[in-house]
Write a structure and sequence with these properties.
heterodimer; A: mainly beta; 6-stranded mixed sheet; 4-stranded antiparallel sheet; 12 strands; globular; B: mainly beta; 0% helix
Chain lengths: 115, 115
Amino acid sequence: AQTVTQSQPEMSVQEAETVTLSCTYDTSESDYYLFWYKQPPSRQMILVIRQEAYKQQNATENRFSVNFQKAAKSFSLKISDSQLGDAAMYFCAYRSGFGNEKLTFGTGTRLTIIP
Amino acid sequence: DTEVTQTPKHLVMGMTNKKSLKCEQHMGHRAMYWYKQKAKKPPELMFVYSYEKLSINESVPSRFSPECPNSSLLNLHLHALQPEDSALYLCASSQPLAGRTDTQYFGPGTRLTVL
């Protein structure tokens, strides 16, 4: 079974600074997807970024980028120029490439932005 | 703005009540999901519908009964719930593609309280 580990229950960053959230996963599969979702106090789960395991290039979405290290099974999220609206719980998630539609989530990292 | 809507936003019910949660997506997706999320925990998958057929039931108690009337609607019927069923219930949808399923997009959730 796949597992996803987020070792930082809480993180804080000064506004406009950069922060990196850690995620590691365990799988024996070669075909899979990785995601970062954010959940602000409004409770909406919002997709931040996704990465296909077969792609070597790290995904980026504006101020958000990932460092995908497949051999190390690591998938960290970097947020540049942090903004107050980035404050949320961030979940890392894993999904198999074929057949299994289940998302396996990590336990989350609560990110606080300091003005 | 989310393209997955859920009603109601909040629901308070007694243990003998029957109620339903509703989810609608407007993206033409053919896979829909119910998740349960307890406070400060990641979402846990309950059910998956693919092409209007139940494809995954994560051993959910029978007091939760899903229904998929058509490709854009997903209901969760509740009956004889317990106080420990109080949680945030999230709906999500995705598009199956050549044996895979694409990214899951979530609705804003229904906060359920069972008295």
